[in-house]
Structures are given as C-alpha cells and as structure tokens.
Amino acid sequence: MAQGQAMAGPSGAASGIVSRAAGGAARNIRLTVLVCVVLICGSFAGATLLQMRLDRTHALIQAQYFETRRAHDIAALAGMALERYVRLGAMFADNPQTDMRAADPWIRNIVVFDSHGAIVNALHGNGADLSPLPRAALAGQYVVSPSLVVVPHRGRVIAISFNPASLPQRAILTRAALLLRGGRVLASGTDWDGRIFAAVPVPGWPLLAATSLDRAAALAAWHDTLPLSIFLILGSALVGGFLAIVFVREFERRARATAAIRSLKTMRPVEARLLVRLANAERNAVESLRAKSEFIAHMSHELR
C-alpha cells in the first residue's frame, strides 16, 4: 500500500499542477486567448519563414546545378576547339602547302619548331613572333596561353596562334570564362564579373571553364512568392486577432451568465423574486425607451 501511495504521489502532484494551471487559465480568459493566438500566429509565421528559406536554398541549389552543367558544356566545347587547332597544326606540319586560312579563319599563324627550338616552317612570315618557345613546350608538355597553343608532334613542336574569341564562341560565354592556371583569363564573355560560382576542368588541357551566377535571375521566382508569404503571415495574424476578440467576448458573456445563475441559486426566494422584478423592470424600461424613440422618429418623418 505504501508503494501504491508512492507511485500515486508524482502522478497526483502532476495532475494537481495541471488542474491549477487549467483553473488559472479559465479565470483569466483574455490572457489565455491572447497567449493561444500568439502561439498559433507564431507557428504560422515560423512555418512560412522556414518554407521561404527552404525555397530560397532550393533555388540556389538548382541554379548551381544548371551553372555546373553549363560549365561542363563550355569545357567540352573549349576542348573540342583546342583539339581542332592541334589537328590543324599537325596537318600543316605534315603538309606545309595546306591552306590553313580556308581550314579555319581564326588561326593567325602556325610555326613548326624542331626539338631544339629552331624554326622549321611557318604559315606567315618567318615565325619570329612565336619564338622563342616556352621551356615546358620543349619538354613535351602542352602549353596554352591567351592566344597560343604549343603541342609536341612527331619529335617536333607546333605553335598555333589563334583568336581566343573562338574558344568557344563569345555568345556561349554568358557570365562565363576560360581560365588558365593561376587565374589568368583566356576568354570571357562581356558580363563576366570574375566571381566563380562553378568551375570545371577542360579535359586534357590546363584550363578551367568557370561560370558566375546571376542571383537576381536565380531568385526571380522566389521573389515573386514573397507577397504571398507576407500575406500568409499578416493574414494569420489578423484572423487570429479577430478570433481572439470573438472568443473573449463569448467567454466573458458565458462567464457572466454562469455567475448570475450561481448567484440566483445562492439567494433566498424573496431576493430572487426581487432580482427578477428588477430585471423585468429594466427590460420594460429599455423597450419603452426604444418604442418612444421609434414614435418620435416616425412623427418627425410625418411632420417633414
């Protein structure tokens, strides 16, 4: 039995705390309703703000995905263009009589060097404009500069000078650029701001295809939903305030009616009858006053 009382002790204390809290809430209806409305409106506002933040994050993640895909496409196009220049350079090295201008109008000059860096053949002039070669090129490495590609070919070295605007076409480089190692720009669009949002290496070349982010365009749809989100927050607050007023009035009316009924039950019959007569007299006075007002209004209308 002692164990039963010990077990019932905490539950009884908890039920007592709950009952006292419920009694306090019932006695102070206005504060209770106000707290409930604040909590409900706060829940709506918090859920809306959280959804807004999730939508913004989703928009930026989606933009990053598209920019990364675009960087991959630019890298693939740049790699294809550079490979084309390498093939054209090898074609000229094997057959100097080939018309390179007809093959690719973007080529400025092609110079063929031997393994020691001496000029063997040149497409235009004597090739002095592309001499001397970088040491890395003589060591058999691919070298790319803003307008030059140097590649080894059958024991010789080929230097191809080209217009960098062709890597790839400038229309594709919207908010994008091709970067050399160290961050130097090989080719870029007119709106490239230098801020890298996504970067992809060009396959087989020491280059990076980088893209920047147009945050205004990426968040345009999110900005369009802001008025709806604000409406949800303010709408829930206004509806909550209106319901609070209605509930408080209804609860107070019922509380007054309950208190009146309790007071009547505790009174003696004589006092109860006296209160009933007073109430009837008050109601009759109100009705007579209203009838008098209606009669005066009617007579005033007839006189006019």
Number of helical regions:
8
Number of DSSP E strands: 9
The termini sit apart by 89 Å
Strand order of the largest sheet: 2-1-5-4-3
Task: Return the structural class.
Answer: alpha+beta
The mean pLDDT is 76
The dominant shape is rod-shaped
Please explain how this structure is put together:
- The protein is of the alpha+beta class and 304 residues long.
- It is built from eight helices and nine strands.
- The strands form two sheets. A five-stranded antiparallel beta sheet has the order 2-1-5-4-3. The chain has a four-stranded antiparallel beta sheet with strand order 7-6-9-8.
- The radius of gyration is 44 Å and the shape is rod-shaped.
- The chain starts with a helix and ends with a helix.
List keywords for this structure.
single chain, 304 residues, alpha+beta, five-stranded antiparallel β-sheet, four-stranded antiparallel β-sheet, 8 helices, 9 strands, 61% helix, rod-shaped
Helix-strand blueprint:
Layout: H1 2-27, H2 29-94, H3 100-103, E1 107-113, E2 119-122, H4 135-138, E3 143-145, E4 148-153, E5 156-162, E6 176-180, E7 185-188, E8 198-201, E9 207-211, H5 215-218, H6 220-224, H7 226-266, H8 269-303
Antiparallel strand pairs: 1-2, 1-5, 3-4, 4-5, 6-7, 6-9, 8-9
Helix pairs in contact: 2-7
